Amino acid sequence: MAVRLFEGKDHAAAYLQYRVAPQELVSTHLNKYCTPKPFNLALDVGCGSGQGTTLLAPYFTKVVGTDVSPVQIETAQANKNPPNVSYRQCPAEELPFASGEVNLLSAMTAAHWFDHQRFLKEADRVLKPGGCLALLSYTMDMELEYGDISSTLNDICKEVHPKYKSSCAEIEY
């Protein structure tokens, strides 16, 4: 079961003010890892107050941020957002998108709260062939397990971050 924290208005306001947005993700890694082009749909899961969501707007036709917290979604919607950015409330493990619809699925400092098995199954369902799953975190303390590709997922982290010994599938910023 996913953890449901950070739903109060005070916390959402603090999140908006202090959460670091990973600007390097877009400029450094998007073109390298995300295919096919053009980039139609980006999905930012666990978007909180939307800082990371809006960073994706210049690169995609449509960007949708999702969060389990109605207060976080309300806070994100209250921000000045580009016209191609919208938000939806839903758990990370139940995404309201068709199979094979998403080019990029990102979770910026949120995936550690998800039910990993269910989330990865859902990510696999909604991503287009060649789509990209980008999990970002402040730490390298995460290991992913998903069927018979667990080793591959964790090897990706080692490829991206050869200086780290721990295994995870994320891009640090």
TrEMBL record:
It comes from the Eukaryota. Residues 43-134 form the Methyltransferase type domain. CDD domains: AdoMet_MTases (cd02440). Pfam families: Methyltransf_11. GO terms for molecular function: S-adenosylmethionine-dependent methyltransferase activity. SUPFAM superfamilies: S-adenosyl-L-methionine-dependent methyltransferases. This is Si:ch211-93g23.2.
